[in-house]
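Human:
I keep going back and forth on a fold encoding question. Comparing notes only helps if you start from a blank page. Show me how you would write down a chain together with its backbone fold. Write it directly below this note and I will take it from there.

Assistant:
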Amino acid sequence: MLISLQNSLVKQIRKLHASKERHKQELFLLEGTHLLEEACAVDYPLEVVCCTPEWQRDHQQLWQKASSRCDRSEVVSEEVLAAMATTVQPDGVIATAKRREQTTELPFTGVVLALETVQDPGNLGTIIRTGAAAGASGLWLGGGGVDLDHPKVLRASAGQWFRLGMAVTEDLRATVQQSQEAGMQVVATVPTANLTYWQVDWRKPSLILLGNEGAGLSPDLMAMADIQVKIPLSPGVESLNVAIAAALMLYEAQRQRVYGS
């Protein structure tokens, strides 16, 4: 059992708290039982799995499954696990995995999300979770925002990070143009729009543009949209959280596709 905080593996995993190190090592962190279960369910390749003796005793089947899918497995003391985790009260297990291979392709069908410089990992994780739940076809993440594999993104996605197709693009404008050329309608939320989001025909292949939490969509991306819509708000309310806005449109799209307009 690993009990030293000075162990090289412990030091390596602790470094993954920082974005720079995740990029350098090409690894990311999976913290907690649920994330490990979801990774194993889709056979996501693992590098290292560490757990406390108590967790190993209580989750023998998952431990065996995870151990068979990783390069190295270790039982560690509670103090060591706490040092490796980013959470205040880790539940007894942590793992590392190779960062998702970056793809530049997503389907041009269904409803796809495109996020411009979303900064909050909780927002991104919630959008991923909602996108998977509502049957989105994928998610584009523009450059300049939070890392796709930030530990808080993984946790906020409740494991759905492994189930939604995602891609990072450094040129979101080119991605939007490519989607339009493939026949997708591009929809952006604008407070001054004439149409409400439920007046869109979401049965058509659609790309939903969502902007930064503070600044919203940049003017040039907003201008590229084929359709601008608003989400009605009561007087005195300026805007909605970006994850809530995404959920409203995704579920309206699902409603139309299941029940018709």
Observations:
- The CA atoms of residues 115 and 227 lie 16 Å apart.
- The chain has two domains: 8-98, 111-259.
- The chain has a mean pLDDT of 95.
